[in-house]
Amino acid sequence: MSKRKAKDAHLPIGECISQVHQILRKRFCHQQLPVKPEGVEAQHKHLAELLKRTAVHGESNSVLIVGPRGAGKTMLLRSVLRELSQETEVQKNLLQVHLNGLLQTDDRIALKEITRQLQLENVVGDKVFGSFAENLTFLLDALKKGDRSSSRPVLFVLDEFDLFAQHKNQTLLYNLFDVSQSAQAPVAVVGLTCRLDVLELLEKRVKSRFSHRQMYLLSKLTFPQYLERIRDQLSLPDDFPDGKFAQEWNAAVTTLCEDKSAEEVLQRHFNSSTDFRSLHMLLMLCLSRVSVARPSITPTDLLDASRFCLADANANMLHGLSILELCLIIAMKHLNDVYEGEPFNLQMVHNEFKKFLQRKSNSMYNFEQPIIMKAFEHLQQLELIRPADGASAKTQREFQLMRLMLDHSQIMEALQKYPQCPTDVKQWATSAFA
Amino acid sequence: RMKYFTRLRVKRIYEWRGAPIGFNRKLKTSEYGSLSIRVEGLPQTTVISAGQHILIEGDDDNNPYVARVLRLFADESGVQKKAVVQWFVRVSEVPPSKLQLLGRVPHPQEVFLYEGRSCEDEVNAESVLRPVQVRHLDVAAPFPVSEDGDTFYVKLSWDSRTFRPVDPSLVMRGATATPASSRKPGAEAESLHSLTKLSASKCLSAKRRSATQRTPGVRKKLQLSSPDEPAALRDDVLQQLLEAELEAGARSAMAASLSRRTNRKPGRRDDVPLTPRSARRRESQSEMDSPPAGDDPSSYKNKFRILAEKREIFPEINVSQLWTGDVSSLSEPVQNQLVPLSPQLVAPGRNHATCRETRTSSRRKEIQTGTEPVLEVLDEEEEENGALRVSRRKSALKVSSRIRKQLNLLDGRLSSDEDEEEEEFVPSRKELQSSDEEEDDDEGDEDEELAAKKSRRSSSSHTKQKTRTPRKTPRKAGPITPRRHRHATPSIPNRAQPARRPGNILEEARARLHVSAVPESLPCREQEFQDIYSFVESKVLDGTGGCMYVSGVPGTGKTATVQEVMRCLQHAAEQDEIPPFVFIQINGMKMTDPHQAYAQILQKLTGQKATADHAAALLEKRFSNPASRKETTVLLVDELDLLWTRKQNVMYNLFDWPTRRHARLVVLAIANTMDLPERILINRVASRLGLTRMSFQPYSFKQLQQIVTSRLNKLKAFEDDALQLVSRKVAALSGDARRCLDICRRATEICERSAAGLVGMSHVMQALDEMFSSPYVAAIRSASTQEQLFLRAVIAEFRRLGLEEATFQQVLVQHQALCRVEGLQPVGVSEGLAVCRRLGACRLLLLEPSRLGVLQRLWLNVSQDDVLFALKAD
C-alpha cells in the first residue's frame, strides 16, 4: 500500500519538472542503456554467446562489430557486458581491457594502458614502468604463461578499431590476434568500427590471424518504429514519484507524436538520419524548453528545435557581415557564374563591384582600395573564401587566387534574411546586370 | 680521471715448463708436463700440470668452465698450446628442467663430471685461467661448509640426460698435489677483483660481527633468515634487527669522529681517501678484537700487521656466496664495470624473483660502495706505490678473513641477508656520478630512501623469506623505484572457477577446430616436414651451421611445421639419437624494433638482460668465440621481413653467424614472400642467406579437407558435403587453413543455435556468407533516405561529368534536384555535408579533408553497379 501511496503522492509542479529533466537528460546525454536491445537481437545473442564462451570455456575469439556512426555498436557491447556481468561465473573470471583508437594513438600508449588495466606486476599505482620493448615482452610473456583452462580470460575492446590498424607494423593487432589463435591465455578481441572496408586495412598476416567474424549493425528502422522509439524515449517510467503528472506527461507525448506538423518535422529528421545521437540532440533541445510555465513538449517546440538543428552555419555567418563585405560576396558569386567556378583574385572582385557601382549613380558605396582590401581579408579570416590550391603565398595579395566557400543557395538565403538589405543590392544579387 | 681496471687488461703469459716429455710422430705434437702462467707485472707464476683442475675462460666471465687437465701439448707448428681436458659441468650449465632429476637442491659449488659427447675435449691452453680445487664427495655425504669459493665438489656425473654417481679416481687423481706456491699468483691476480666484491660486504660484516658478539639475537637472526626457516619467528627477528640497527647507528657516529682523527695522522698520504666508511670499518674490527679499543691509530696498524700475517692461513674469500651476482638485473653500464671486476660472482641458486626485487636497489648501493675502494687501489697501483698498496690490500684481506671466519661461524648462511645493512654507508656523491646515467634518475630516490632508512631497514632484512605483500607496505610509503618491474613475473591471474569442459559433440568439435588446438600431427606437410627435419638434423649431427629460408602465404603452416620439426628433434635429442641442441625462436612482429632481436635472442639463450647494442656485442662474441663446448643452437626467426633495417645489420648478423666456424648456429627464417631475398635484401645479406629455400604452397581443397578431418579425428560433427564446400571455397580464395577452421567453427555455432545435430550445408553456407559477403550493399540499403539520394546524386553527377570524381557542390545541385523530384524538402548545405560525411565515415564515399567544405572532392568506394543494384531492390 505504501508504494501505491507514493505513486499517488502529489508533488509541486516545479519538483515534477526537475524530475523530468533529470530522467530525460540521463537518457539523452549519458547514453543510458535501454532495458533490452532493439533491432539487434540476433547480434546481441551472437556476441553474448561468444563472450560467454570465452569467459566460461576459455575459448579465444576475435570479432569486429561494424556499423555506421550512431548505429548502436557500443550500446550493443555494453548491454551484452551488462547481461554477462549478472552471471557470477562470467563476472568472476572475465578481465576487461578497454582501448580507444582516439586515445591510444600508438602501440606504446596502448601497451601501457593494457598493462595498467590488467594490473600486471610491472604496474605501481597508476604508472607503468619500462620501455616500450620491455612492456611488449612483458605482456606477451604474461599472456603466453597463461593457458586455456587456468588463466582468467581477458576481453580486449578496441573502440575505433580502424585507427589501430594505422599503428606501425600493426604490432598490437598482430599480437592480440596471434594470442587469440594460439594456445595461450584465453582472450576475446572485440573491435568496434564504422568503416566497412576495415578488413582491407589489415596486413595479410594480421588478417589471416583474425577470425573473420564480423557483425554488421545495418538494420534500418521504419518510420513508425522511429516514432515508437521517440515515444519511448520521451515517456516517463511507471515509478515516477508523481503518478498523475506522469500520466499527463505521457499523454502529451502521445499527442505530440500523432500531431501532423510534429510528424512532418520528425519525418524530415528520419529521412536525414536514423541514428540515435542526432535524435537525442533534437529531443534535448525540446526538453530544455520545458518549464513550470510550459509543462509539456508542444509541436512548436519541436519545430523550433528542428529549425535550430538544421540551420546552416555558413549562411548564418553572412548575417553578421557589413554591406561592403556582402557586396564583395555577391561580386564573387557573379564571377563564379561567369567563369564557372574558376578561382578569382581581389582585383577581379573589385572590378565586378565597380561595374555595379557605375550602373548606380548613387555613390554611397564608394570605398577606397585599402578598405576593400581589409574587407577581403576579413572574409578570408572567416573562411568564407580560401586561397586556391596552387596559389603561392608569394604573389601580391591583390592578385592571390581565391575560391568562394559558399554555395549560391546559401548566399540567396542569407540575403533574404539580412536586416535592412538595400534593394539594389538584392537586385544585383539575383542578376548581374540589374 | 681514474680508469676502471678491467679483467681484460690482465695479460697472461703462457709458457711451457721444461722440455717436451714426448713427441707424437703421427700428429707431430709434442707433449709437455706442465705449463706456467704468469700475469704480466706480477712476479709469481702458476703452474698447471696434467691431472690438475683448472678454470677455463668461457662465455660467461662469472662462471668460467671447470675442467681437469689430461694432457698438455703443442701442435705441429709448436706455436699453439693445447690441452686435452675432462670437463665438469656447473650447476648453471645444466638446463633447469634437467636439474629436477637431481631430486635435491644443488649446492652452488657443486659440479658434475661431464660424460656427454657433444663437447670437444681439446682446448686452447691460453684459455686456462687458473687452477681450482675439485673434491670428490660420496653421494650421501653432506656438502662441507663452504670454506673456499675455489673449491668445487663432485658427487655425480652428467651425460646430458641423467646423473650418475661418479668414480672418485676419475676426479681426484693428481688433483690434490697442487703446491701452495702455485696458488699464490692466482690469488694475487684475483685479489684486485675480490677487493671489489669484498668492500661492500666487508663493511657490513664487520659491523655484524661486533653486533654478533654483543647481541646473540643477531646471530640467531642470521640463521633465521635462511629461506627454510618457519615464518612464525618473523616478528622476533624484526625486533632483533631493529635493536641491532640502533646499536649500529650509535657506533657509526663514533666512527665518524674517529675517522677525523685518523685523517690527521702524520705520515699518511693525503691522497688516500679515508672515508668515514673505511675508518669505521677498522674501528669496528678493532673493537671486535679488543672491545675497549684505544683510539690510538697506531694500534690499528699493529692489528693490521698481525692480521695480514694470517692471510696465508685464510685464503681469499670468495664473495660469490655473499654477493649473489644478480648481474643481469643491473643497469648495463654498471654491469660492464662489474663483470670484469668480479669474475667470480656466482648466483647460488637464488633466482627467486621475489628475493631479487627487494635487493635490487640495495645491491646498487653495494656496488657503489664497492667500487670505491677498488678505484683507490687501482689508483695507487698506477702510481706504483707499493707500500701503501700492500697495507690496503692487507686490510682488505684481513677483512676477508674476518668474513670467512664469520661465515664459518654462521654455517655460511650469511649469504641470504647481506643487504640489510647497506644503508649504513653513504657513498660519496662524486663516485656515484661516475657510474652511469641510469643511476642519475635514482639518486633522488636514494636520498629519500636513506632518509627513510629506519623503516626500510627493518623491512628489507626480513622480506626474503616472505612473499611480496609485507615488502610492499614499507615500499609504498617511500618513493617508488622504477626498477621493480624488471623482476616482476609476467602472468595473468588465475581464474576463480575452472574452465568448463566441452559438453556435447559440437562443443568438442569446436574446441578441436580452434586454430590454437595443437594437432597430434600435421597432415599435408609431410614433404616439407621431412626436408626441414633432415636439414636441421644434419646440421646438428655435423655440428655445423646453416640457414634456411621458408616462405609461404599466411596460414599455410610454416611456423607450425617448423615447430613440429623442432619438437620431434628435441624428442630425438632426449632419446640420445642426436646430440642435444638449444632451440629458440623470435618473431619480428613481437618486437618493437628490429634491433630488439639481439636482446631477445640473448635473453632466450642465456637469460641475460641487456640492451640491444650490448646484446649484439655479446652474441657476436659468443658466436665467433671458439669456445669448445657448445651445443648447436637452432634459431627460428618468424616474420623475417620485419627485421629489415636500412643497413640490414640485423639480418646480416643473423645470416652471418651461422657461417662462422665455431658458431654451430642453424637459422630458420620464415616470411610470407617467396622472393624476399631478391626484393629487399642487399647482396651481401642475400648471399649469406644462401639458396636453401623452401616454399609452402597454399593448401588445396583436398588438403584442407584432410586437415579438418584429422582435427576432428573421427568425431562426427560435419556432413561430408559441408566440409567439402568449406574446403573448396577457402582453397579458391586463399588456401589459408586458419580461415577454413574458423568457418567450420562458426558453422558449428550456427548449427547449435538451429538445434541440428550435424553441421550441414545450410549452416556452412550461412557461415561463409557471414564471413565473405560484402557489407556494402546491405549498408546502402540500410542508409537513410537522404543518404541514398545523395549516392544517387553522386552517380548522376559522375555520369554528367564523365568522370569518377566530383566536388560536393556539384553533387549538391543534383541532390537538391533529386529531392524535388522525390517530393522532399531540398536539403541545405550543412545538412548535405552531414549526409556526405556520414557516408564518408563508413567508406561508401571517399572524401577529401572536410575543412574544404563545399569544395571537397569525393569519389565512390563501391562500384556504381553495386549502388544501383542496392537502390533498385529497395
Topology:
The complex is a heterodimer of chains A (434) and B (874).
Chain A: H1 2-8, H2 13-29, H3 41-57, E1 61-66, H4 73-85, H5 88-93, E2 95-100, H6 107-118, E3 123-124, E4 127-128, H7 132-145, E5 154-159, H8 161-164, H9 171-180, E6 187-193, H10 198-201, H11 204-209, E7 214-216, H12 223-234, H13 243-258, H14 260-272, H15 276-287, H16 299-310, H17 313-318, H18 323-339, H19 346-359, H20 369-381, E8 385-387, E9 402-404, H21 408-417, H22 423-430
Parallel strand pairs in A: 1-6, 1-7, 2-5, 5-6
Antiparallel strand pairs in A: 3-4, 8-9
Helix pairs in contact in A: 2-15, 3-4, 6-7, 12-13, 14-16, 15-16, 18-19
Chain B: E1 12-17, E2 22-24, E3 29-32, E4 34-39, E5 45-49, E6 53-56, E7 65-74, E8 81-90, H1 96-99, E9 110-114, E10 122-124, E11 128-131, E12 133-136, E13 151-158, E14 163-165, H2 168-172, H3 180-214, H4 216-224, H5 234-264, H6 276-289, H7 297-310, H8 332-341, H9 353-382, H10 386-409, H11 429-435, H12 437-451, H13 453-460, H14 468-477, H15 505-513, H16 526-542, E15 546-552, H17 558-574, E16 581-587, H18 596-606, H19 612-624, E17 632-638, H20 649-656, E18 665-671, H21 676-679, H22 683-689, E19 693-696, H23 701-712, H24 720-733, H25 737-753, H26 761-772, H27 776-782, H28 785-801, E20 806-807, H29 808-822, H30 829-841, E21 845-847, E22 857-860, H31 864-873
Parallel strand pairs in B: 9-13, 12-13, 15-18, 15-19, 16-17, 17-18
Antiparallel strand pairs in B: 1-4, 2-3, 3-7, 4-5, 6-7, 6-11, 7-8, 8-9, 8-10, 13-14, 20-22, 21-22
Task: Write up what this structure looks like.
Chain A folds into three domains: 41-216, P-loop containing nucleotide triphosphate hydrolases (Rossmann fold, 3-Layer(aba) Sandwich), CATH 3.40.50; 221-310, no CATH class; 315-433, Arc Repressor Mutant, subunit A. Chain A has 22 helices and nine strands. Chain A has helices at residues 2-8, 13-29, 41-57, 73-85, 88-93, 107-118, 132-145, 161-164, 171-180, 198-201, 204-209, 223-234, 243-258, 260-272, 276-287, 299-310, 313-318, 323-339, 346-359, 369-381, 408-417, 423-430; strands at residues 61-66, 95-100, 123-124, 127-128, 154-159, 187-193, 214-216, 385-387, 402-404. In chain A, a hairpin with a 2-residue loop joins strand 3 (123-124) and strand 4 (127-128). In chain A, helix 3 (41-57) packs across helix 4, helix 14 (260-272) runs parallel beside helix 16 and helix 15 (276-287) crosses helix 16 (299-310). Chain A is flat and about 90 Å long. Residues 1-7 of chain A have low confidence and may be disordered. In chain B, helix 3 crosses helix 6 and helix 28 (785-801) crosses helix 29. The longest helix of chain B has 35 residues, at 180-214. Chain B is elongated. The model of chain B is unreliable at 1-8, 174-233, 255-304, 306-392 and 410-486 (pLDDT under 50). The interface between A and B is large, with 98 and 85 residues.
